[in-house]
Design brief:
The structure is a homodimer. With about 160 residues, chain A is mainly β. Chain A is built from 1 helix and 9 strands; from the N terminus they run βββββββββα. Chain A is globular, with a radius of gyration of 16 Å. At the A-B interface, strand 1, strand 4, strand 6, strand 7 and strand 9 of A face strand 1, strand 4, strand 6, strand 7 and strand 9 of B. Strand 1 of chain A pairs antiparallel with strand 1 (about 5) of chain B.
């Protein structure tokens, strides 16, 4: 199949310089702030975004190398199919998080509840719209029994592709 | 900034062969079924996914050409900043939808409430987990006054990059 080529529209800055110890989802990153620096030639696209309390950010797991189709997720001790997890090592290392948008100052977006590595290339921003993005009642598979998945779970080394 | 290269992990099939008349979000696609054909060498990654009632699919708007940083969205009559909209013509033409997963048969995922063009290349699948993906109470900017955004709104030609 054909190649699809993207270019970052910005860079995400967070307090997490190493994968180890990072929260593994926004739930574990409550109160952790970060910023996004948007590319100069994309700034006009930010109009009206400040009306939204939350945004969807799509980014590239830039430290991820290779992948396995079966992984033991942080939240489990059994191997699971990769696509049933949010592990960063994927055939296409695309990350997606819903974060709180605090304010926009020029090219800088201040965001909250950030579970992302510092220096991560940003690919897209979309407004979070519950009518589109929240389907109401859900089954959540192997995570169903975990009542604590919003707690402060931190990453270890297992998804580290290159020891950085 | 550097290029990021992805390769589709599958193809999305839907009843929508033309952009015109397509629902513009899953809300407008209630009851519309589709399928995803997953690449043979990615099948092992589908284990455990059937426990989830909803999945996040990330895909490439393959018919989208070029972009403008200011657009008049389907749901409005005023120009809005591109990143405050879900328009398909974006610097990186990444699409994201939350769809219902009905069943998995071999390499075929049967999905429901599909607002996607037939033949769209799939880049990633993630389980939808409300604890991660639904932030609770939200402000939804220029969409705040629209109580009808889940209704059957259909696309016109405005985001058509190449008349197909």
């Amino acid at each position: 199949m054909e190649q699809i080529i993207y270019r970052p529209i910005g860079i995400i800055h967070t307090p997490f310089h190493k994968l180890k110890g990072m929260p593994i989802q926004p739930g574990g990153a409550q109160g952790v702030g970060g910023t996004i620096e948007i590319r100069e030639d994309c700034l006009d696209g930010l109009q009206d975004l400040d009306g939204f309390s939350h945004i969807i950010i799509l980014y590239h797991f830039h430290k991820s190398r290779g992948f396995s189709l079966e992984v033991i997720p942080f939240l489990d001790d059994k191997p699971r199919g990769l696509f049933a997890t949010r592990a960063p090592r994927r055939p296409n290392s695309l990350g997606m998080s819903v974060v709180e948008l605090i304010k926009i100052e020029g090219a800088t977006l201040h965001i909250m509840n950030v579970d992302i590595l510092d220096g991560t290339p940003l690919l897209d921003i979309k407004p979070y719209v519950p009518d589109f993005d929240h389907p109401g009642s859900c089954r959540k598979g192997w995570l169903e029994m975990r009542s604590d998945i919003s707690a402060c779970i931190r990453s270890d080394d297992r998804f580290n592709g290159d020891n950085s």
